[in-house]
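so i finally got all the pieces together for this one. its two components total, 660 residues if u count the protein bits. some of the lines might not be protein, just check the labels. i wanna see the whole assembly predicted at once instead of chain by chain like last time, that was a mess tbh
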Amino acid sequence: MGRLLEVKNLTTNFHIGVGCVQAVRSVSFYLDQGESLGVVGESGSGKSVTMLSVMGLLPGYAEIKADAIRFDGKDMLNISPSEFRKIRGGDIGMIFQDPMTSLNPLYTVENQLTEPLRIHRGMSKAEARLAALNLLKRVEIPDPEQRLKQYPHEFSGGMRQRVMIAMAVACQPKLVIADEPTTALDVTIQAQVLDLLDQLKKTTSTSTIMITHDLGVIASMCKRILVMYGGLVVEQGTAREIFYQPKHPYTWGLLHSIPRINQQKGEKLIPINGTPPDMLRPPKGCPFAPRCRYAMPVCQKYLAPETVLSGTHAVCCHLMHEKAPKVERQV
Amino acid sequence: MAKKPLPLIEAKDLKMYFPVGGSLFGKRKLLKAVDGVSFQLYPGETFGLVGESGCGKTTVGRTLVRLYEPTGGQILFDGTDIAKLSEAEVLPYRNRMQMIFQDPYASLNPRMTVSSIIAEPLRYQGVKPQEIASRVRDLVQQVGLKEDHLNRYPHEFSGGQRQRIGIARALASHPDFIVCDEPISALDVSIQAQIINMLEELQEKLNVTYLFVSHDLSMVRHISHRVAVMYLGHIVEMAEVRELYGNMLHPYTKALMSAVPIADPDAAAKSRRIVLQGDVPKPIDPPSGCAFRTRCPHATAACAETVPELTDMGGEHYAACIRVQRGEI
């Protein structure tokens, strides 16, 4: 399988009045064809900004630096805005968190669904309408003929998210980026949408990147996971490596913060104390050090280098150094 | 928990209808947000109330503390029916019932300092100013904030810290009962656990009773002693927490629980989601008979005719489903 996306040392800064927010600090990752990658982290960890930087969707005051961003063999750092527009919505589809605000309330669903088909695939109005109808059928919207003529406000939250998915996959993209696609939905509706995304993944060869803070969603949807904290990828590995052999104290903390199924009654959750770092003034060393119960003096001063544990598993933590004390994850 | 103390709060056939729409020519309709729910809350316990948006769980919480005047039914607080009391008559009970809100950004007045936010309920109680100051300091410590936070304004705090301020405010009047309305859903995962642990510790120390309203089923399971599941204004199932999560009876509960993604890749690969068809019906226009029948995989013609009663299926495990009651499913 070939590399579909490769990002090397991506750094994104936002210059705002009071200083510079260092949202993403030298993030590298890759995605193979047909792969499903999950990005997990708390608000402000840089997971959305990383993807928006790759997509070129950030406002002008964002400063994006990278050694390389390659998508499908193209150098995304040096392409013209018009070429970029051809890729976005064409080869890369996007699903956003809030289906209420990411559809245009003034246009019918037909109008919005046919737009990418006409622009990227050069279809005629009639062809695009037929394709849109099929898309609505594929995302299992009942009564698609009628629904095409309606406006977004006439759809429920779950149905709107289905429309968003239909739009994202309209041009048979090579990559779909879903940013918290089910966060705004109720659990039973979330189950419907996840099921649909699962089916689309199986029936097409589309690769997916799913950004979420929900460990449950990521465990059931993604094969490989990036854990982000303070604008850095602190650990990455396959889903089984992250859930069963996590190595970074932040990953441990995340996994302990949620109640487990087999947890005994009366057993306490183990929270991560403190609050996430202020990215206007990120700490000099490891961003997690102030909240980490295993922090050593070196953690305050230097970022940890990446330690590669397997072909897929890598972690950035000073505890991996051979002279560091051996600590065991508390269970 | 000791067996059967007197309930602190008892809701009997509680109803809360809201008039909606209506114009010169159109008729006003009634939105039956809560349509006849009954349950008891015992001192020192956490009662979890779960359901999807629009099921009426928040309305139940708000009605219990009399933020709304219920349309029908009774609310027995320590034996007194407070459902029909006037604003002035209900005031003495207000001190004993408090609320923690979902949105820590919207529920604190941005123009008040932390100390005046926490002191406000005390001033209403007529506590002397000198005592207020020391009580406020105690409260701030209890919720894990520092004294030098007292003169700051809400915008200077993170979401988790704001929720702590809201909890301190709720604790100020020594309440017996606190409605926690989605207290953690606006917070990050690592912060959620901090707040949940604090709520549990406060309960152990102060023996306060919680109504924990949430859509997060795994957190409800973690914190609650008993749980009720709501759907379109009705309680469909209610039981002690281990019994409910271990032995689900109602088809809606089963679907709801199976829909929760499991944070464990191997278990997630094995589990089967029961995917319900369609959306929750509009509460303004609920289906006849059992409200869940339009999405229920087991619905029969009889389900459209009668509204199922919440019935004890043994061991105080209640379910409202005629097919479960007949032993068919």
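Chain A touches chain B through 47 residues (CB under 8 Å).
The CA atoms of residues 117 and 170 of chain A lie 7 Å apart.
anyway lmk what u think
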